[in-house]
Amino acid sequence: MGFQERLREAERLRKHRDFQRAEACYRSLLEEAPQHAEALLGLADTLRGLGRPHQALAMWQTWLELHAPTAPVLTRMGDACRKTGQRAQALQHYRKALRLAPDHRSALMGLGDLYLRENKPDRALECWERLLALDPSLVSLHAQVGNLHRKRLAFEKAEASFRAVLGLEPENPYGLFGLADVLRGQGRHVEAAPLWDAVLAVDPHNPQVLTRAGDCFARLGEAGKATRLFEQALTLGFHKPALLGLVRVAQDQGNHLEALRRCQELLAHSPRDSRALALLESLEAEHHAPPGKA
Description:
Elements: H1 3-15, H2 19-32, H3 37-49, H4 53-66, H5 71-83, H6 87-100, H7 105-117, H8 121-134, H9 139-151, H10 155-168, H11 173-185, H12 189-202, H13 207-219, H14 223-235, H15 240-252, H16 256-269, H17 274-288
């Protein structure tokens, strides 16, 4: 089998994720032609597929010593450096890639992730919003951008992102949860209620979902439904927001003894919780207040 045929076979093996055999093929080719561009890149990608980023980086570096840099190679190097904790080097590779190709999508994605890991959400958003302008069909990225905005309480921007998710995938659980939670943050509980029902239909055993849905229905006056959701969250383990929700439901119903019991249950788990201590003090004062002064 000639050189080009063996090279095609190595590519075929790599594309079929038969990485060990592909590695052997590429190394055999490089023994004959140590500077062969396709073989060097193929071996680097194979080593990346085998989970050996340090060795892949060495191959890419050898390639760069022989050939002009390209955005795809620099981006792959950035990805490998990011995964191995070499953030400064990753940043350099991504920036060089984007200087060569300002709209390189993988570089924008990787650089955004790097900025997020460095706690620079504004810069991450810049990268990802540029990427979404190039390709608005990236559902998971819309959700990630929405979550960043949601955590920063930028509710209008978060709402737009999650609506974009649901416009592409109407039953996407991350879009449903994100939009429901954003509406909750804006006090738009009537709009959020059907979304919480949709989230519960696909994720009924998540304490966070159960508690936030319970909070929504409690604020809408649906005490029975809220109580069931809070109690279901508690069956999955101690969950402070669920107990706080049950305290509030009991208060709304004028059941001071039940509110006290739930508050004491919370303190049994978190004896120094300042919010629970203040709530207990308030409940005890209310419970012992003279008639007409409660």
